Structure formats: C-alpha cells, structure tokens
Amino acid sequence: MNKIDVTQMKSGEKAKIIQIHGGKGLVTKLEALGIRHGVEITKISGQIMHGPIVLKVGNTQVAIGFGMARKVIVNVDKKFKKILLIGNPNVGKSVIFSRLTGVGVIASNYPGTTIDFCKGCVGYGANKIEVIDVPGTYSLEPTSPAEEVAVKMLNKTITEKDGIVINVIDATNLERNLNLTLQLLKKDIPMIIALNLWDEAKHIGISIDIKKLQEILGVEIIPTVAITGEGVKELVSQLDKAKIGILQYLDNERWHEIGNIIAKVQVIKHKHHTFVERLSDLTINPWTGMPIAIFILLILFQIIRFIGEGLINYIFEPIFQNLWAPAMMVLSRVLGGHGIIHNILIGELIQGKIDFGQSFGLLTTGLYVEFAQVLPYVTAFYIVLSFLEDSGYLPRLAVLLDKIMHLVGLHGMAIIPMLLGLGCNVPGVFATRILETKRERFIAATLMTICVPCMAMLAMIFGLVGKYGASGLVPVFASLFIVWFLGGILMNLFLKGESPEIFTEIPSYRLPYVVGFVKKVWMRIVWFLKEAVPFILLGVFIANLLYSLGIIDFAGKIVGPVMNKLLGLPIEAVGALLIGFLRKDLAVGMLVPLGLSLKQLIIASTVLAMYFPCVATFAVLLKELGIIDMIKATLIMIGTAFFVGILLNLIL
Ligand SMILES: Nc1nc2c(ncn2[C@@H]2O[C@H](COP(=O)(O)OP(=O)(O)OP(=O)(O)O)[C@@H](O)[C@H]2O)c(=O)[nH]1
Ligand SMILES: [Mg+2]
C-alpha cells in the first residue's frame, strides 16, 4: 500500500480515498460528487500543465481542479516491483536472498561480505519480482562505500515508489538492530521484518515477544532461520502486508525508545559460559590469541598443501599424462606434426613428445598450467578460506592484527581483503570497500597488488622455486613481506589523511552451514575458471604470436641489456614480463623453459609478483580507485618492483 495524492496517480490507476485535506468546506463539496473517504476511484486522464483531472467515481465521471486533487489522499494498491533486503551487516541477508531467488551469492560470517548489490527474482503469485541483496549497514548515515551503496539503493526505491523493504534483523542482537529498523520506519516505504537467526536466539536463551513487538512497530514480523529455510515461505506469503511504519519518536530519543521496546519484548535467560564463548575469549585475547593464530595459519597452510598436492598427484597429473597427452599426440599427428595450427594448438614437440611445461600450445601448456598446476591450489585455498570465513574467525584475526595493521595506515579489518587477495586480487581489491576512507582503500589496494600474489601465481612460484626448499622460497616471500611492511609504513607517513580505528562487530563462532559452504567454494572455482581460462589461452596465443613475429626478440634487444645489467635476467625473460600483464601464472610458467639459475628465478618471480597487476586486477583498480589513484598505484608498483629486483640482484 502506498499513500499518495490524486495528482500522483497514473492514468488508469485505481485507488481508495483515505483522507481529504483542506477543511470541512472542501470535504462537503467533494462529497456532493461522491468523492469521500473510503470510496474507490479510477483516474481517467492526467493533468496537463496543472489542468483539471478526470476521475471515475462509481459509474460517473467527474472533473476536479489540480489544487483540489492534491488535497485528496489515496491509498494505491500498488503492485511493488522490487524487494530490498536491508539490515545490519552479517544478519543473513545474503542467505535469505539466495533462498528467495536461487541466485548464488557469497555469504560469510563477518560483517561486510556483500559490498555491492546483487539482483535476482522471486516468483510472487503470477508475477516475478526483483529482489535486491543490499550490503549491510548499521544506520542510514553511511560510513563506508559499501554502506553508501545500501543507502543509495534505499533512497532510489523510496523516490521511485516501486518497492518494499524486507528488514532483516539479527534476533540475537535485537537492540542494536532496532536502531536501523527505527530509522527505516520513518521512511516512506512499506516494510516487513524478517527476524532472522531465530535458532541462535533460542540456543542462547533469548526470547522475544513477537506479537508485542509487531504491535509496537506496526509492521509484520516473521521469525526466520535462513540457513534451514524456516519461515522464508511464510515471509514471502506475507509480502503484501508490508506497511509504512507508524511508530513515532523523536530522533534524539531513538536509543531511549529502543530501550523501552526491549524492556517490553525481550527476556534473556541467564546461562553459563559455553565452550564456544570460552574459545571466543581465548582467540581474541592477545596473549593466547596470537599463538593460536600462528598455529591456525600454519595448520591451514599445511591443509592447502595437502589438498593441492593431493589433487595434483592423484587426479590432474594422471589425467593429463595418461589421457590428455596421448590424445594430444593423436591430434598432433593428424595436424601433421608442424605448421601454424599445430603450433597454436599443440605447440612445439620436445624430443618428439608433448612437454606440458614447454610445448606452449593452447591445448597443452595453456590447459595444463590452469588445470593441473593452478586449479588444485586455488580449490584448496578456497576451501580453507571459506571455512575461515564461515567460522567467524576472521574478525577475531582482525582484532589481533589491528596494532600491526595500524603501522601501515590500515586497521585490522584490512586483513580480510588481503586474505581474499591471496585467492585472487580481483575480489581482494573489491573487498577494500569495507574500509572507511579513500586513503585506506588506496593503501590496501596498492599493497595488495604489489605484495600479495594471487593463488594462481603462488602455485606457479611454488612449482618453480619450491624445489629448492627454503633457499628458494624464503627470499621471494621475505621480499614480498618486507616490501608490504615498509611500503605500508612509507605510504602511511606520506599520504595525507587519517586512518580510522577498527570498528566492527565480532560474530559468534558458527559451524559452516554445509550447503552454503559447498555452494560458495563451487561458485568461486567456477568464477576463477571463467576469469582465468580465457586470459590464459589468450596469453599463450599472444606469446606465440609475439615470438613468431619476432616482437619478443626485438623488445629483448631494446630492454634486454638494461634488464640483464640491472636485474641479472636473460633477454628471453622479457616475454614473461610482457605476458605477465595478462596472466601472472602463465608468465611464471614461461620462465620454466629458460633454464634460469636459482638467483634468477628468485628475482624473476619477485619482480613478476610486484611489477604490474594482471589486466583483470587493473580493471578493478581503475573502477575502485579512479584513474588518478590507479596511475599513482601503478607507478609505485613499477618503481618498487625494479628497486627490489635490482637490490636482490646486488645482494644474492
Ligand atoms: N545459525 C544461523 N546462521 C545464519 C542464519 N542466517 C545466516 N546465518 C549465517 O550468518 C552468517 C552471515 O550471513 P550472510 O548472509 O553473509 O549475512 P549478510 O547479512 O548478507 O552480511 P553482509 O553481506 O556482511 O552484510 C553466515 O555465516 C550464515 O551462514 C540463521 O538463520 N541461523
Ligand atoms: Mg551479504
């Protein structure tokens, strides 16, 4: 239902009169024509330049002036076209969204998972209605870009008058959540409340008198458990009961009002500390938390290795060696063993055989790098990361690392984009939206693109220098870490502006909800393949093209000597640096046939990791930072990469 005046009705629209302003005189005058409270009218024609309006009342048509029409208030039974899911961060909006629409979105147990809106549809009667998953926000005065998105979405829908809000509330945190609800109730938009996490509220002994709360707020409330789907059907069936709020209060007395409401509707049973709460205390207290954090990260690292190596040794390597290689040999013979097409698809035969590391064809090296070398580790990483996200550990890690992160001009929550960046820098840079200021986002995105190699690249670096053990891995990762730290300190010193304090809620520990967990890992793998495979194939193709046209030789002749002197790398490495712009993993793969020494491998891997983000990351940097900051970040990257490369060449 929507309250508007007659001038705002569309031609042909039906509505019920609910009020007539303008005093008794006008009321009586209009009554004479049958225009009175409770009557249904249809607008026949709209006003042109504030001219009269023709209405159908009962069976007769009447015309009234524009000024009069403005005083007649009606309720339009408007069919709403969209539903906004609005609520505090981490209350389950995304899980509800997935349930309503079937669209897979990432849901995790930390505030700020959704940083941009996402749309889907829900069937509602005969119609399909658009549902929008909005980033979480604590209030309607945004403090971060993600919250800005939420408030903008809401205001747009209010102006267009074509949507309703499902306000998702965390039942375990009613008091804090009501702050946003009360603000929403004052907005001119129909709403309905999903009282989510109802299961957890019951577990921890919170009971809420829903009926009473409903009476006070004046809008429908449906308890839900998003992860099991309980209540979601009911929620959909109650959508047309969405109403504009009626609760009146003074803005500066909002918290007072909330206090009153809580006293009336909520009872908390006293209970003993649970194991989970003890664990929570232990992991967030610096003295016990730090050793636990180091232990957890080491274990997770081992798990990634275990899963990654397992997938490679028992699945992908056998498939490629025993099935794919013979198939490709057949294809090679069919193609006659040489020629342009052969070179593009199969590449070069090494001693009459396909060598997946060196042949460099689209179907040989191209697929092998992505599927047999990179995908297993990416999968392993996303399994571990998703577990971390869902458990609720990340905000605790953020608190533990807050002090250290402040040295580089960030606060603890910046560890979340950094970790996501380890999977792929693209979602990593996006996730910097949970940071409040432009300065923090610049620092975080720049540090990430320089010093946080993505999993695809990491897998290749491990493959390349890992066989030398610590003497290969330590110099590469120590350089990345030192540059991250020093670079951050320098940026913190020289960039203007402030870094705000950490400000986040710490959700309770949860066991990942299995369906959501599996879906999330699967979505990320599919996303990775969609992003990576086209670029890697393009990379192989372009690399072949550049070689066969002699461009790499030419570039090598020009920059080769400088690179050789400064970085100690052979001229052929120019090809890898060029292709690194498309895909870093492929670039590292291109170093394999060059027969580099350990020192050269270390320098090349480090420089490749730092010098330039891949083209996909570049695009999001541009989107998130804007052109000027993106150029600044790029200059910092190139400068740092060469500085570090030269330094390594001198030291090692
Ligand atoms: N036990 C329980 N867990 C839930 C319920 N709803 C959501 N969760 C979990 O709560 C966490 C947060 O869910 P999300 O859907 O990501 O929350 P969100 O509101 O979209 O959060 P932001 O995107 O950060 O604003 C996830 O770990 C979910 O699995 C519920 O009803 N019961
Ligand atoms: Mg979300």
What is the element layout, followed by pairings?
Layout lengths: L1 E4 L8 E7 L2 H10 L7 E6 L7 E5 L2 E5 L1 H6 E5 L5 E6 L5 H9 L16 E7 L2 E7 L11 H16 L2 E8 L3 H12 L5 E6 L1 H6 L2 E3 L1 H8 L3 E3 L8 H6 L16 H12 E3 L6 H10 L1 H49 L5 H6 L16 H30 L2 H7 L1 H6 L7 H9 L1 H7 L6 H14 L3 H11 L4 H25 L19 H35 L2 H17 L5 H7 L4 H8 L6 H14 L3 H11 L1 H25 L1
Parallel strand pairs: 7-9, 7-10, 10-11, 11-13
Antiparallel strand pairs: 1-6, 2-3, 2-6, 3-4, 4-5, 8-9, 12-14
Question: Can you put this structure into words, describing what you see?
Answer:
The structure is a single chain. With 652 residues, the protein is α/β, with parallel strands linked by helices. It has three domains: 75 residues, Roll (SH3 type barrels), CATH 2.30.30; 187 residues, Rossmann fold; 288 residues, no CATH class. It is 58% helix and 12% strand. The protein has 27 helices and 14 strands. The strands form three sheets. The protein has a six-stranded antiparallel beta sheet with strand order 1-6-2-3-4-5. A six-stranded mixed beta sheet has the order 8-9-7-10-11-13, sandwiched between helices. A two-stranded antiparallel ribbon has the order 12-14. A hairpin with a 2-residue loop joins strand 8 and strand 9. The radius of gyration is 31 Å and the shape is elongated. The structure holds guanosine-5'-triphosphate and magnesium ion. Guanosine-5'-triphosphate binds next to helix 3 and helix 6.
